[in-house]
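Hi F.,

I've been meaning to write this up properly since the lab meeting, where we talked about keeping a consistent format for the predictions we share between groups. The idea is simple: the sequence comes first, exactly as it goes in, then the structure tokens exactly as they come out, then a line or two of notes. No screenshots and no reformatting. I'm using this chain as the first example so we have something concrete to point to.
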Amino acid sequence: MEKKYSRDGDGRTVLRSSIREFLVSEAMNGLNIPTTRALALTISDTEVYREEIEKGAVLLRGSSSWIRFGSFEFAYLGSQKYKHVKILADYVINESFAHLKDSSNRYEELYIDIVNNTIEMIALWQSVGFIHGVMNTDNMSIAGLTIDYGPFAFMENFQKNFICNSSDYDGRYSFEAQPYIAQWNLSILAKAFSLLVDEDTLNRYNNTFIRRYKKRYFELMSKKLGLLDYSSDKDKNLIVNLLIALEIDKIDYTNFFYKLSTTEMLSMGKYNIDKWLKEYYKRVKNSSYLKEDIQKCMKKTNPKYVLKNYILQEAIDKALQNDFTLVDALLKIAQNPYSEHKKYEHYSYASKPDTQFIYSCSS
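Output, unedited:
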């Protein structure tokens, strides 16, 4: 019998995961991170069987492309793989990379563009503390969009090796692993592209991924710190030492950067982070930029709100009782994460130790 859905699933989704994707895709857009978008969410009358019987839902999504790395893997299978990979690559160029249409080297340039788009997306993820949770090739967009939100999370107390997927027993998709998994996925894409372009040429470019990623990541982190005259030689260690201090002292990631952006002289009352803050304020005092310009940059870069999992769970719990008021409120917050939302000010506070939710891949 022919299988209709992957992994022998029923092809359905439940309300809880639909609410999560509906809100977080808009949150990522509000943070200026490339993403698919949520257009509408409706409850289904159909019961869905998971660990328990749940309410079903239909989520309408929009995207500039739904082609994934895995789409090329699939095209690579079978006896006509050259034909199928070429058809798919030409389709992708026509639909999403029109500037390559007339290039004699368009397939190699397409791969390079995909690598560059992926670098930008991953650097942005890491800068805001976003963990995707399931970075397999079928969840990687050729357009560099964040796609297919499952057991994702925003960082609460900073942990570089944080795992948000309860099914990820080996930490393959941990926060610190994300750049390396992205590079590995691109090597799999290079294998499919090898029917059209020399694979060694593609892998040589992919081998520069981590270097290019780190350059972009530190640029983004320097903006979060207001280091407008950032120098990789003298400021890189300052950023690295910040992450170490945040982890040792168990500091909430988003809340820290927001406070740093809005407080004259921040003190956290913890040894390692306060020691780092002394070095930071020395560095800012020697900046060639005006204090007003530094703060303006930081306020534009550091959101007051991210949709942490415990916040989303509160909205889900209410929605399961047919109360969608918090879902509506969180949508406004998601779309305006740098703004004031006085009624929901408490969602900007540092997380308590027991608030971190993690989820499985089930939908």
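Notes:
Residues 6-62+306-348 form one domain.
The first strand starts at residue 13 and ends at 14.

If this format works for you, I'll send the rest the same way.

G.
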